[in-house]
Specification:
Two copies of one chain form a homodimer.
Chain A (H helix, E strand, L loop, with lengths): L7 H13 L2 H8 L3 H15 L4 E4 L2 E4 L1 H28 L2 E7 L8 H10 L3 E7 L2 H9 L5 E5 L8 E13 L10 E6 L5 H12 L4 E7 L2 H9 L4 E5 L7 E4 L10 E8 L6 H15 L6
Parallel strand pairs in A: 3-4, 3-5, 7-8, 7-9
Antiparallel strand pairs in A: 1-2, 5-11, 6-9, 6-10, 6-11
Chain B binds a DNA duplex through helix 3.
InterPro entries (chains A, B): LTTR, LysR_HTH_N, LysR_subst-bd, WH-like_DNA-bd_sf, WH_DNA-bd_sf
Keywords (chains A, B): DNA-binding, Transcription, Transcription regulation
Family (chains A, B): Belongs to the LysR transcriptional regulatory family.
Chain lengths: 290, 290
DNA sequence: ATCAAGATAACGATCTTTTATGATCAATAT
DNA sequence: ATATTGATCATAAAAGATCGTTATCTTGAT
């Protein structure tokens, strides 16, 4: 009992007919002639020796068999499209450099893994620097893409996600929050965090002092963990060793920051385009990090 | 970015090439010409703009892309075949009568459910009678199929499954197993069970008496549950209220019985063929009933 | 050198799409 | 109600593309 094979083209028009509700509309959508679609439907019915549709008046209705075939068709076409785009993706080759501030690195490993699975032939390089630095490098085409916290003075780029900033301290610490507030600052977003924090404190009439500074979060970690100062991070950067402080701490609320994706000025290479798409998709939903 | 559709025919030959390891062998298997298969492979490569195979010497090897497409192909074809046979199955209509001994009914509900899912347009009637009776009815074409315990005196039919017979008593009872053994008998297999039991006892030099008889297990259940007698059932017929007795009970071992499927003498209708197949498939594996 | 397998070319048949036309049905006007 | 209009769908005929076959050529292994 050898099973004949479906013509996926015909199944695609079947789905189009179902989606649009009419033969002519389906024809338009598929860039076929009306008569072609009409005959394709007939062909399908002839091959299966089943009537898939019937019309009462002008309305087209699918029979039970039609509905069933429709379901099969959707599954088959989904698998087909997936297979096809996988085969295409594997053909995409090239090299690609992405810039990110060091502390966003923790956000992206799963994206990188997925990207490599989809496009195994693409060589991906990641460079870390401050946001301001990265923006300049992208403009100079030294990077294909850069994912940065949006700079006030360097607009452009697509906003991928907005994220709340939070005050945080070591998880077991109860820092003294009397003025002046001891701040631990680092410069991931080229001091965007710092700017924002100082503005918020000033607006609230609070006093502060910069207790510690470092180029990276890693350098600051011991100080913060020890409870010697509070730090400003995005919510998705919170680690198990960091405890966020809510408004009951008395510290002023902080604004949202924007993650922006910058692209090199020239037309993006195919790999760059794909990674950009992927980052947008994957990062669009606000992460529910602890 | 609209994804083109695969030609499942080409994928089928790709699989055939992979299975057979050569173009000519695949051609033979698919009833194509060698050149056709050769060109189909080329067509596939042209459509994807990928080379799927390479040969070193005479040996044909798939590239990484080829292997990948092969995997996709198998999935797609499996789905295709499933969809196709489902569409065909739904077209099968008719009526169909199956005979079974009453006590096998418990074995088949899942088969009936599955059958109805596969062939919703088939009307299935089930008739219960003793095995001997059923065999005659099938021969007289009053039934399409009969699933019976094989009769010594009426051979024929396909053996679907062998199953052990066991002695059983009420689950909480400790019956007196001194001679004469009190037997509770019913006649599901037209007394095959009785015959077998008495032969086994006689061969073991034991004495017995027929304490209770009934036409059905249901009639016997209270007596057995009460511990007034032992009964002989197949292992798959054991219910939670029945406790099997092993050899430590002192009762002689019982032979296997055979479940046989009889078909009406005329050429079976399509529904009958299908149900027969399904019963064979589903009942082939010995059930691990409690 | 010979044999078997794969590739290629040319031809033919089949299948598919299109253009053109006719039929059917709903809606609006008379 | 009846007729007219507009639109959708079905069908016929013809052009066109595709696919499979036969026949031939190339290539690699024994």
């Amino acid at each position: 009992m050898r099973a004949p094979t479906f013509d996926l083209t015909l199944l695609r028009t079947l789905v189009a007919i179902a989606d649009t509700g009419s033969v002519t509309a389906a024809a338009k959508r598929l860039a076929y002639t009306q008569s072609t679609v009409s005959m394709q439907l007939q062909r399908l019915e002839a091959q299966l020796a089943v009537s898939l549709h019937e019309r009462d008046g002008r309305r087209l209705r699918f029979t039970a068999e039609g509905e069933r075939l429709l379901a099969h068709s959707r599954r088959l076409l989904a698998l087909n499209d997936e297979a096809w785009s996988d085969m295409q993706a594997r053909q995409i080759t090239g090299d690609l450099t992405l810039g990110i501030p060091e502390d966003y690195a923790s956000l992206l490993p799963s994206v990188f893994a997925y990207f490599h699975q989809l496009y195994p032939a693409v060589g991906l390089t990641v460079k870390c620097a401050t946001s301001a630095h990265l923006v300049e490098q992208v403009k100079a085409s030294e990077l294909d893409l850069a994912l940065v916290t949006r700079q006030r003075n360097s607009p452009g780029g697509d906003v991928i996600r907005r994220e709340p900033l939070v005050w945080a301290v070591g998880v077991h610490q109860q820092p003294s929050l009397s003025d002046p507030i001891p701040l631990a600052l680092y410069s991931p977003g080229a001091d965007v965090f710092r700017e924002v924090a100082e503005q918020a404190l000033q607006a609230a009439g609070r006093d502060w002092r910069v207790a510690y500074t470092s180029q990276s979060m890693a350098g600051l970690a011991p100080i913060v963990t020890a409870g010697l100062a509070v730090v400003v991070v995005t919510r998705s950067m919170l680690t198990p060793t960091l405890r966020p402080l809510d408004e009951s701490s008395g510290l002023p609320a902080l604004p949202m920051i924007e993650l922006a994706l910058h692209r090199a000025p020239h037309r993006p290479s195919e790999p760059a385009r794909r990674l950009g798409e992927l980052i947008r998709e994957q990062l669009a939903a606000p992460s529910e990090a602890l």
